C-alpha cells in the first residue's frame, strides 16, 4: 500500500486575516455542461489517483444541479471500473439555472460542507469553468478544472478532452459523404459543431481533404463563400465539400446552400448536418491518454496546494492555467491552417 499523502492548502484565515493550513481529506468530482468523449476516462483517473494518494472521493451526479440537490455518492476504486472506453459521462450532466444565482450556490456550498468535501474537481467547458470560478471566489473554496469539450475553445491548453474523438468522427463521416459527392458530382455543405470557434470545422476539413471550411471568426471579416465560388471549384473538380461551423451569427450549412442554389440553380447542392453524433462514441486513444493525464494532474494540483486553476497540456507538458486565463476570450484560430487547406485542395 502506498503511504497516504496529506494534502494541504493555504486558506485565507477568517480569524485575524492571516493564513491557516487546511487539510484536504476529501474531494468532490463533478461533470457539468455538455458531455465530451473521454470524460469517463478522466473520472476514472481522478478517482483512482485520489484514492492512491489517501483522499476520499465523493461523486456528484447531474452537474451543479445535483450539487444543489445533494445527489452525492462516495466512490471506491471499483466505482470507476470498466468505464475508460465509453463516451458520455457516468456522472450525467444537467443544466442548472439555480447555480447561476447566489441562493443556489449557497445550497451547493452547504451540501459540500455537509458531505465533508474540501475541494472540487470540475470537468467541462467554458460555462463549467465560469461557474467554478464564481463559486470558488464567493466561498473561498478550492476548485480545479479539467477541460472537457469537443469545441477545443479554452485558452492555455493545446487541446481539450473530447476534441480528438469528435474530429475523428467528423473525418470518418466526411469520408463517406465524399464517396457519394464524387459519384453524383455534387457540392456538399457539411455542418459541424464547435460553438462558433471553428476548430472542428477547420481541422476536420484538412483531415478529410475538404475544399473549404467556413469558420465564423474568419467569415465575419472575409466572405469565404464568395471566394470559394470565385475560385471556380467546378473547373478542376466535379464535386466539392465545404465544412461549415454551426453559428447563429454567420448562418449554418442550410444558409450557404440556399445562397449557392439561388445563384447557381443548375448546381447539385446538398446539405448534411452531422449533429450530436459528434459528441458520442468511444474516446480515441489520444483522448483517453490526455484524460488520464489531466485527471491524475488534478490530484497533483490539490496535493501541491493549487486552487482555481485549469489543467492544461502545453507542448505535451502538464500546465496549470488560472481560470481567468482559460476562459478570458474565445481561443483564436490559426489562419495559416485555412491557407494550408486552400493550397492543398486545388
Ligand atoms: O459545447 C459542445 C457543443 O456540442 C457545441 O459544439 C454545440 O454548439 C452545443 O454543444 C450543442 O448543445 P446542445 O446539446 O444543447 O444542442
What does this molecule look like?
By secondary structure, this protein is of the alpha/beta class. The chain has 2 domains: 200 residues, Rossmann fold (3-Layer(aba) Sandwich), CATH 3.40.50.450; 117 residues, Phosphofructokinase domain (Rossmann fold). The chain contains 13 helices and 13 strands. The strands form 3 sheets. A 7-stranded mixed β-sheet has the order 5-4-3-6-7-12-13, sandwiched between helices. Strands 9-10-8-11 form a 4-stranded parallel β-sheet, sandwiched between helices. A two-stranded antiparallel sheet has the order 1-2. Strand 3, helix 1 and strand 4 form a beta-alpha-beta unit. The protein is elongated. The N terminus is likely disordered. Bound molecules: 6-O-phosphono-beta-D-fructofuranose. The site of 6-O-phosphono-beta-D-fructofuranose has 10 residues, from loops.
Summary, kept brief:
The chain has 346 residues and is an alpha/beta fold. It has two domains: 7-162 and 283-326, Rossmann fold (3-Layer(aba) Sandwich); 163-279, Rossmann fold (3-Layer(aba) Sandwich).
Please outline the helices and strands.
Layout: E1 7-12, E2 19-24, E3 26-31, H1 39-52, E4 56-60, H2 63-69, E5 72-75, H3 102-115, E6 119-124, H4 126-139, E7 143-147, H5 163-184, E8 187-192, H6 199-207, E9 212-214, H7 216-219, H8 224-230, H9 233-236, E10 240-245, H10 253-263, E11 269-273, H11 285-303, E12 309-314, E13 317-322, H12 323-326, H13 335-343
Helix pairs in contact: 1-11, 2-3, 5-6, 6-13
Bound molecules: 6-O-phosphono-beta-D-fructofuranose.
